[in-house]
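Design job #97: recover the sequence.
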């Protein structure tokens, strides 16, 4: 992932290119070249690109990684206060807790709408197969965090040990 310094360097190069294109566009108008309007468009696009690269250079891009979290898939997200993630059926209790914390970090967005609540609720589910041809979703845990505060210290993780016990045991256990 590019760093903020790399974005600032790219914006400097892009600004230099925009300056060269602007000089070419001015020369094209002075000498009535046929490509003068194309040069104006290329200059404008390069200026917009430069502004975007500069903005990315100002805001640090970071992703929190929670140790012990396993990969998950977002299977439902209403863009507001509810989301559901799918986890593997061989997940352990400690992995589930770390994965729920990771999902809470990954799915936080200041653009989420509040639908009468100030909490984002993320539920974790796994699919088990009690018999051939039958699939059963088990909701094994959830995390609740603030919709508005990125570093929520009041985040709560709840794990349903009864349903977690219904999951098949991993081969390593």
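Job complete. Output follows.
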């Amino acid at each position: 992932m590019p760093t903020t310094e790399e974005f600032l360097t790219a914006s400097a190069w892009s600004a230099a290119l925009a300056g060269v294109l602007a000089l070419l566009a001015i020369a094209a108008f002075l000498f009535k070249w046929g490509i003068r309007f194309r040069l104006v468009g290329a200059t404008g696009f390069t200026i917009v690109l430069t502004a975007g690269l500069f903005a990315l250079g100002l805001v640090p891009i970071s992703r929190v990684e929670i140790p012990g979290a396993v990969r998950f898939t977002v299977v439902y997200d209403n863009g507001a206060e509810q989301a559901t993630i799918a986890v593997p059926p061989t997940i352990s209790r400690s992995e589930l807790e770390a994965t729920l914390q990771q999902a809470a970090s990954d799915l936080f967005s200041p653009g989420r709408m509040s639908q009468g609540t100030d909490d984002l609720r993320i539920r974790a589910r796994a699919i088990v197969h009690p018999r051939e041809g039958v699939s059963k979703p088990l909701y094994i845990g959830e995390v609740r965090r603030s919709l508005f505060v990125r570093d929520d210290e009041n985040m709560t993780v709840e794990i349903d040990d009864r349903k977690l016990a219904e999951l098949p045991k991993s081969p390593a256990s």
